[in-house]
Amino acid sequence: MSRILFVDPIPESLDGLRRSLRAHRGTWDMHYSPSYQDARDHMAAETPADILVAAVENRNEESISFLAAMKEQHPKTVRFSVSSTSDDLLSLQSSSIAHQCLEKPYDTHELEILITRAFTLRERLQGCALRERLHDLDALPSLPALYRRIIEAINSTDTSIGEIAELLQQDISLSAKLLQIVNSAAIGLRNQVTDVAQAATLLGLEKISAMVLAVEVFSMVGQKALPPGFSLDALWSHSIRVAEGARTIAVDACDDRKAIDATFTAGLLHDVGLILLAANFPDELTESLRRAKTDETTLWEAERETFAATHAELGGYLLELWGLPDPIVEAITYHDIPSALPEEEYPSAVPKHGFTPLTGVHVANYFSADERQTAYGCVEGELDVLYMERTGYSAKLEDWLVLCHDT
């Protein structure tokens, strides 16, 4: 039975949850803690919860420190944060220590959907056929140290953008790469940006931190031999284009800043699994690319034949290990074939009931198919018509194509 721990110092909130979730008592083992100390004691004394749903507030340091401690002490527990404010700093802090972030008031049915979704996503990722091979090779990288330091700085309430920029500027090669990206045509800034502090101010910490993580991920290839014709520069160009296209789609589809930022991050990192394959299994990836070209099939189908897994699943597994938010992990895991998302288990969660980053990344990736084919001679994926029809977004495709091309 799935174990879920709810923590909220407001008694009325806990009572409301008890009443609303009564129907799940036969399928979920639920415990309700009225304080963070009670929750700490419960996690220490009992088998740790599979999912933790904790209230956090921007003027309550105990709530943030509790969730951060749970991340450190119980990394396998899926963490949800629930706040009663849309404060930007709190949102950044929460997103760095929680897999899901909710704001009060929220529909309890929405919480049920997200909990079910979290369990389903992890079942999919645990079944990734390549994860054991990478563990055996000791080839799964840790969360990049600089990115971790930036997130820790963001979590410090008195940190300024200037101080974040100082952290970035300590790494000269990373700073240079960031400025190259920021000044690329894909980002679309009107004036040349000459320093990292200016870039952070113009783009915001969420976007900059996503770019830092992407730069760090691309650099983990090091001096390893890559498959013939495999170009990291081409993959960079493709990733930036997908990120900006996905963000453009998200801005048109919703007014949720968290969803928009998550969509950009997911677009930038959607091919992280391809980098892992290129760095660790170059011969087998070469075979996948050859098979995709000669059989005129998609890359993910060829990967399935070669690896019994896809680069999307592998990328999702890595980012789930790193603790990135579930909407980002989900978008990366399913970006080639979103209809594989088992919506029958939570039908109200499909994007027609609210935009998700998965839609933006899938469509933007499809719009960028030509450049991927030019770079590698094969198509990564095709438009998932079933998914688009099921979610009700088919009618938006032409509008989104125009918007992405105008960006």
Describe the overall structure.
- With 407 residues, the chain is of the alpha/beta class.
- The chain folds into 3 domains: 105 residues, Response regulator (Rossmann fold); 197 residues, Hypothetical protein af1432 (Orthogonal Bundle), CATH 1.10.3210; 61 residues, no CATH class.
- The chain is built from 22 helices and 5 strands.
- Helix 4 links the parallel strand 4 and strand 5.
Task: Please outline the helices and strands.
Elements: E1 2-7, H1 11-20, E2 28-33, H2 36-45, E3 51-55, H3 61-73, E4 78-83, H4 88-97, E5 100-103, H5 108-126, H6 131-136, H7 145-155, H8 161-169, H9 172-182, H10 196-203, H11 205-219, H12 232-253, H13 257-269, H14 272-280, H15 282-294, H16 299-307, H17 311-321, H18 326-333, H19 357-367, H20 369-376, H21 385-391, H22 397-406
Parallel strand pairs: 1-2, 1-3, 3-4, 4-5
Helix pairs in contact: 4-7, 5-17, 7-8, 7-11, 8-10, 9-11, 10-11, 11-13, 12-13, 12-19, 12-22, 13-18, 13-19, 14-15, 14-17, 15-16, 17-18, 18-19
What's this model, at a glance?
The protein has 22 helices and five strands. It is of the alpha/beta class.
